[in-house]
Amino acid sequence: MLNLKDIVSEFAVEGKVEEVLPLGAGHINDSYKVRTQGGAPNYVLQRINHHIFKDVDALQNNIKRVTDHIRKKLSEKNEPDIARKVLALTPTKQGALYHCTPDGNYWRMAPYIANSKSVDEVSPKLSFLAGRAFGNFQSMLADLPAPPLAETIPNFHNIESRLVTFREAVKSNLAGRLLKVEDIVAEIEKRADEMCKVEQLHRDGKLPKRINHCDTKVNNILFDGNTDEALCVVDLDTVMPGFVVSDFGDFMRTGANHGKEDDENLSNVFFRMDIFEAYAKGYLETAKGFLTPLEVELLPFGAKLLTYMQTVRFLTDYLDGDTYYKIKHPEHNLQRTKAQLKLLLSMEENYPKMLELVTKL
Ligand code: GN1
Ligand code: MG
């Protein structure tokens, strides 16, 4: 087992390392908080999951370009406290953006944003602030100079491609679990054509791709520890071109769920219109300037689409025998699938209200 402190010492960190502790609960990468002694900054060390992010070099270059661009924007606006409003990458002592250990793992470091907190549950107020923050993030990146960012995971939020993979998983039935989930497969197939409409609109030249975050969970925003002000957007691994409705929708999927993403008790899982309304207000405040009328109109559809997509992704992994998401027990991916499907049904019930609200805003 590699010593985490040795890995930290490959990077150009200030101060002496006191301890390295596990941090957060992501499904993909492993994160650690690096505490240093005295007044030196603390850091976040991450092992990058290179089975998922296969081109680590392209990944880290994306993050570098995105954070440099945002930093430039903030300094042009004379924003105070820039170090807490955009992530930074701590280079290695050789000046590289990541470090590869002899066991073939990839590591990166970033300063820990001081006096910040992440929240896992949202109130309407936080949701409004989160909407503004993600809208602002997209807006700051709208003029990122060419070339386009790399697609760190090809076809990441492409529902057509997700359905192709899903249907292969159904066909191969690798883990022998198909019989148990046939009714859910039918629910997925029933909605498949409708869900693919965004890709078609794109092919028809009606729906643009813009720079998206592609993991707009509320816990990917850091808030000020005292004032609740949204400081900065983190977890930039999947920042890449996509449909803005998909970022909007992923927040709804995660933030406007009354229950948990993997709630065992499905009666806890339902869609919260108060969160939807607050987020939509905040988001449109900062994003309205660059959105087309069709993009605005499709925001409620984005909520359904991303919840549907996550149902498909969890069920695919269940059928494949749990090779993608970290699981806590053998039926975890099925539990997640059921909770996401329940949320989708609840969104479908609320859909007319969502459309009405967006028209008013
Ligand atoms: C993964 O690791 P985390 O929680 O940030 C996944 C997202 C899923 C999410 C489901 C690279 O995100 O796309 O929506 O789990 N990230 C990747 O909770 O696949
Ligand atoms: Mg993530």
How is this structure best described in words?
The chain has helices spanning 4-8, 56-76, 124-141, 159-172, 182-195, 197-203, 244-255, 273-287, 293-297, 299-320, 332-360; strands at 17-22, 30-36, 43-48, 99-100, 106-111, 116-117, 210-212, 221-224, 230-233, 240-242. It is an alpha+beta fold. The chain has two domains: 4-114, Phosphorylase Kinase, domain 1, CATH 3.30.200; 124-360, Aminoglycoside phosphotransferase (APH), C-terminal lobe (Aminoglycoside 3'-phosphotransferase, Chain: A, domain 2, Alpha-Beta Complex). The protein is globular. It binds 2-acetamido-2-deoxy-1-O-phosphono-alpha-D-glucopyranose and magnesium ion. Magnesium ion binds at residues 26, 28, 215, 235, 237.
Number of spatially distinct domains = 2
Say what the CATH topology of the largest domain is: Aminoglycoside 3'-phosphotransferase, Chain: A, domain 2
Shape: globular
Mean pLDDT across every amino acid position = 96
| Annotated CATH homologous superfamily of the largest domain | Aminoglycoside phosphotransferase (APH), C-terminal lobe
Residue ranges: pLDDT <50 for 5 or more in a row? none
Assign a percent range to the helix content.
Answer: 40-55%
Which ligands appear in the coordinates?
2-acetamido-2-deoxy-1-O-phosphono-alpha-D-glucopyranose, magnesium ion
CATH architecture of the largest domain: Alpha-Beta Complex
- Beginning-to-end CA distance, first to last residue: 54 Å
Please count the helical segments.
11
Q: What share of residues are in beta strands?
A: 5-15%
What would you call the structural class?
Answer: alpha+beta
**Sheet with the most strands, sense and barrel status:** 5 strands, antiparallel
Q: What is the H/E order?
A: HEEEHEEEHHHHEEEEHHHHH
CATH class of the largest domain: Alpha Beta
